[in-house]
Each structure stands twice: as structure tokens, then as C-alpha cells.
Amino acid sequence: MKDFNEYMIVWFQDFVSDHENDSEWVKSLAEQLGYEHDDEETPLEYLQTMDDVDFIYTSLFGGNSCVLVDDLPSTEDFAVKMLADTAADLGLSKYDFTGAFLADMTEHIEGYNTPLGFFKDLNYGGCASGLIGMFIYNPDCKKFYINHIDSMEDFKENWENMIGGPVRNTKSLPHYTFMCWFCYEEVGYEIGRSLFPNVF
User: Fold this and answer.
1) What is the mean pLDDT of residues 121-148?
2) What are the extents of the domains in the chain?
């Protein structure tokens, strides 16, 4: 299972490797990422040795990204694949609500310079803060819960078995709202902990 740093480096090196025979593409990307002509290092070598994950991500996908090269995925496409890969590694893909959660998380991540910003905000305030628009209103939670009731209850039961005790609705929320908040937050926390183990 890869954390964010590992995932980003592997993805970037594969991305460069796929185009290493296109000298103009390599030169363009290297220059956009700060390469200055140096007899001791070619543009390809410059890209192959890059390991500043935050710089790579913010340059390619962050809010102020301005890199333009062929085949570069959108921030949405990159983020949704990263989240889906992580969720699959964690065994979360078996729940039928996971896809909707990952799509929503992706929309949020697009508004941050790095994905860590979103997971920090989710960890700090959770759904109660109003951060997660799809679950602000009780009717929206009720509809979502009804559509995914079996899977959400399975998730809760598995979580209780893992921690060895019941999960309690301490805020006296409607059960459907409690379940939506609980499932979204725990899926988000699991993914955040996996991607950023040194932060959470």
C-alpha cells in the first residue's frame, strides 16, 4: 500500500517514462518544472531524479498549476484514480457507497493545493462542520441512506467488530444522518491515514 509520497513518485516516474523517447515533450515538461540547461544533466535526467512530491503535485495539479504537456490528466482524473486505488487497497471498494464518497472527495481536493489540505479539514471538523455539502441537509442524508442502507449498515457492523464495541450516535442525530456522517468520515479518515501516515 502506497502513501501519497510513494504514489506520487511512482505515478510521475511512469508518466515521464511513457514519454522518454519524445525529446520535445521531455524538454517542455522539464523546463516548466524549473530545468535550466546544464551540461551535467539532461532534461530527462532532471525529471527522473525529481523527488519533491509537493512541488510535483502543486505544479501539475494544484490550484495554481500551469504546466501544459500532452497526456497530463486533469486534477479530477488524477485524484479520483488515487483515491480509488487507495480505497481498493483498504478493502473499501466493496461498499456500494464508496464511489459516491470518492467522487465528492475528489471535488473537494480540486480546491486545495494538495490533497492533505482536504483531509486535514475533514479530520478537524467532520461532516458536522458543513464541509461535506452532500450531507448538510437531513433529507439528502435520508435519501442516500435509503439507497445504500445494507452496505452502510454492513460498514458500521464491520467497524464495530474491528473496535470491539458499538458505535454510538452521541449527538442524537436522525439515524440516517448519523450513518451518512459516520460512513463518510471513517472512509475519509482511513484514506487520509493511508495516504498521510505521518500526519494522522
Assistant:
1) 96
2) 4-72, 77-195
